[in-house]
Design a protein that fits this description.
Helix 2 crosses helix 5. It contains five helices and eleven strands. It is globular, with a radius of gyration of 17 Å. The chain starts with a strand and ends in a 7-residue tail after the last helix. Helix content is 24%, strand content 24%. The model has no long low-confidence stretch (mean pLDDT 95). It is an alpha/beta fold. Strand 3 and strand 4 form a beta hairpin. It binds hypoxanthine (HPA).
């Protein structure tokens, strides 16, 4: 049975190297997930794959049905999720092309359906979310990334999650930096919290595709994004392949 899933973000709507065995469109009480779940084998391991923005990348970050996506994965037996996402780099070590395995989150999103615990339960349910990412999955990703040649890897970081779909102002990025954020993206929440609510292990493989707004004294060069997303995601696939082969994954 497949218990491990990969959620692909921008630039990763298809999982290169996945030997596909079947696809399933899951119905959920929260509506339709972004697309069918694809089941197959990668790195010698059974995995499920879900494209967060849909199979043709049409769903913007604030419109993703995060509840349906996480519910769908849980309902087919998934216990652990590795989520891939494109991000902007805020701190100096997070230059373009770097793979960051964050260990913390600050959530700046709003107006998103962000919980399965929406009332009705007695008592009201609260999850502990002090350490939002699963340490075993993080270790496996760090191990997997270290096995890829010539890759700049940062093994911790604070992911500031913004609402989007616009990119940030330079002042917003200065505020995020002052808050301690080292990377910025738009999809890390509520995905991580929803996974935690259902008791799923969750970790993030963040791919830096641009310096965050104003960081190099410049605007974000959106014309350069497609090329950096392409090369960054091709590295992310290598990291995933090595991660799935990592014995660290067996340890939980
Ligand atoms: N900001 C927010 N989300 C992003 C960025 C960014 O600079 N780059 C890629 N996703």
């Amino acid at each position: 049975m497949t218990t491990l899933a990969i959620i692909g973000g921008t630039g990763l709507t298809r999982m290169e190297g996945l030997t596909v065995t079947r696809r399933e469109m899951v119905k959920t009480p929260y509506g339709a997930p972004s697309c069918p779940i694809v089941f197959g084998e990668l790195g010698g391991r059974q995995v499920a794959f879900l494209a967060r923005h849909g199979s043709t990348h049409r769903i913007p970050p604030h419109r993703i049905n995060y509840c349906a996506n996480i519910w769908a994965l849980h309902s087919v037996g998934i216990k652990r999720i590795i989520a891939v996402g494109a991000v902007g780099g805020i701190c100096e070590s997070c230059s373009v092309g770097t793979i960051v395995i964050p260990d913390q989150i600050i959530d700046y999103t709003y107006a998103r359906e962000n919980t399965f615990f929406d009332g009705g339960a007695d008592p009201v349910e609260h999850i502990d979310f002090s350490y939002p990412y699963n340490e075993n999955l993080r270790s496996a990703l760090i191990d997997g990334a270290a096995a890829v040649d010539e890759l700049n890897v940062v093994s911790q970081g604070v992911y500031g999650v913004m609402q989007g779909p616009r990119l940030e102002t330079a002042a917003e990025i200065r505020r995020l930096a002052a808050d301690g954020c080292t990377i910025v993206g738009m999809t890390g929440m509520p995905e991580a919290a929803l996974a935690a609510e259902l008791g799923l292990g969750y970790a993030c493989c963040a791919v830096v595709v641009n310096p965050a707004a104003g960081r190099d004294g410049q605007k974000v060069d959106t014309t350069a994004l497609p090329a950096s997303i392409k090369s960054g995601m091709s590295n992310a696939v290598k990291v995933l392949d090595r991660t799935l082969q990592s014995s660290v994954l067996e340890e939980s």
